[in-house]
Specification:
14-stranded antiparallel beta sheet, about 40% strand, about 500 residues, 6 helices
Length: about 500
């Protein structure tokens, strides 16, 4: 196999309201691939046969639609089997964006298909393919979440007029996509029904054959980003070491099948072939070196690693050599960090836009303590538009006020949109100081505890109105990023594929 023979999906790692890119396994056949090889199990003969080869994936994006085309050229992994699979499939996805609800409906239809499978003397041709898939995508500031359902039916002819094979396809797909990773997991079931004639050879008579089988494919395409620290080897150097961001993509699949036990194309009337086969392929990791923090007041501090990680990721910014970890974190500094961590692009304010309509009135800040044109205003505006954070009153944002624990927790949970899945209002949290939690913070604190972002102190208090230091806020942000990196992947891949 020549290097570069496979053109794989180009995944979008940036997140904005218009981004709908999700990691998606190739087509809907349970196969997996890396840069060099694609592999899937093929069951048209009634047997589980591993095919390998090349896959080409091309995408064309328009404003409210996307076209994805797949081309497969595969042969049996077992070289003693004479066979070949050629498949060309094109899907068109139309997006119905409901900006008022922060959601998108995606409708997928198949616009062209061609598939031919040859196995020794038999030739299977895809004569008809009916397919429909619909997804709902919940566009949240920190992550897009999606859920889809699909139905399909394939109709193959065998050697033109020697029989037919019908494959009913049904299943679902769930996924998420954020700046720190994305995962899409499909659970697809296939029901095979074959009726054919085995032609006569020599003195033998032709034989009518019928068989049925079922296959369940659980396939996951997952991309994750992680941070690694590497020491700098030289003794005389301006920095001790640096972080790097490592991006990894892995596709894994589990086939569970119940097919007839075949002997020269004739199914056994008493015995079945039941088995489970796992497939996995990994892309070559991508390495990105990050900015080097050089704070002089962090040596030995308990939050040193957290702060350095966030600065390397440019969640924190600035050129000062001093971070002042025990100083209270301000509301606007935390909001700026969350907006950057979620990779939200703040809208440039009207005061910074050189070209504008003369008829358009100048932008007016709704807050008396934030001026249009300042960086603080742009980040506060982005947080307000995404419904992450608001002012402390109708016209006061209080950007420089100390950040409280309840405010920080609520901002992070709202960034994920998880406050909506808290219990019906009126419930109580398990913390002993539950009555001190502001009404607007109850949902966020409940969900943050469930997510593992927070826990009570030695007295099981959450201390909702306590100001947070910059060190404490940094530790909470790192936990939040860890949830985006690891917990979501576990929930959308391991918990589904391994335990379903």
């Amino acid at each position: 196999m020549k290097k570069g023979a496979i053109l794989v999906l180009i995944l979008c790692f940036t997140l904005c309201t218009n981004s709908l890119a999700l990691a998606v396994p190739p087509d809907f056949n349970g196969g997996v691939n890396n840069e060099y090889e694609y592999v899937e199990l093929v069951f048209v003969t009634g047997q589980a046969l591993r095919f390998i080869g090349e896959i080409t994936v091309t995408e064309k994006d328009k404003d409210d639609s996307k076209t994805i085309s797949y081309k497969f050229q595969l042969t049996p992994e077992d070289k003693s089997i004479k066979g070949k699979l050629d498949r060309k499939i094109t899907y068109e996805i139309d997006y119905d964006r409901r900006s008022d609800k922060g959601q998108t409906i995606a409708a997928t239809k198949m616009t062209s298909y061609k598939e031919t499978i040859t196995m020794d003397k038999d030739k299977y041709e895809l004569e008809d393919y009916q397919f429909s898939k619909s997804d709902v995508i919940d566009n949240r500031p920190a992550s897009n979440f999606s859920s889809g359902t699909l139905e399909g039916r394939k109709y193959y002819t065998i050697n033109k007029n020697q029989g037919k094979l019908i494959v009913d396809v049904s299943g679902g797909e769930v996924g998420y996509d954020n700046f720190w990773g994305n995962t899409s997991t499909q659970i697809i079931e296939y029901y095979y029904e074959c009726d054919r004639t085995i032609p006569a050879e020599g003195d033998e008579e032709s034989e009518e054959v019928a068989w049925q089988g079922t296959v369940k494919a659980s396939v996951s395409d997952s991309t994750t980003k992680s941070l690694r620290y590497a020491d700098n080897t030289p003794v005389f150097t301006s920095f001790a070491g640096a972080h790097m961001r490592v991006t990894r993509q892995e596709l894994s699949s589990i086939y569970e099948y119940d097919m007839p036990r075949m002997n020269d194309g004739i199914p056994s009337s008493t015995r079945r072939d039941q088995n489970t086969v796992s497939l996995s392929r990994q892309m070559v990791p991508r390495i990105e070196k990050l900015i080097i923090p050089k704070f002089r007041d962090l040596g030995g501090h308990w939050a040193e690693d957290n702060i350095n990680q966030l600065y390397s990721l440019e969640v924190f910014s600035g050129s000062s050599n001093f971070f002042a970890p025990e100083v209270p974190m301000s509301r606007i500094d935390f909001i700026r960090a969350v907006v950057k961590a979620c990779d939200i692009r703040p809208t440039v304010s009207a005061a910074k836009t050189r070209v504008s309509s003369k008829k358009a009135p100048p932008e007016v800040s709704p807050y008396v303590d934030l001026m249009v044109g300042s960086d603080d205003y742009d980040y506060a505006k982005a947080a307000f538009q995404k419904k992450i954070a608001a002012g402390v009153s109708e016209n006061v944002f209080a950007p420089n006020d100390n950040l409280t624990r309840a405010q920080a927790i609520t901002i992070l949970v709202r960034a994920l949109g998880f406050e909506n899945i808290a219990p019906t209002p009126g419930f109580r949290t398990s913390f002993v100081d539950d009555r001190e939690i502001p009404i607007w913070g109850v949902d966020g604190i409940y969900m943050a505890q469930k997510m593992g972002l927070i826990s009570g102190d030695h007295f099981n208090r959450v201390n909702p109105n306590q100001s947070m230091t910059k060190a404490e806020a940094s530790a909470m942000l790192v936990k939040f990023l860890g949830f985006l990196q690891n917990d979501l992947q576990k929930d959308y891949r391991e918990n589904i594929v391994l335990y379903n």
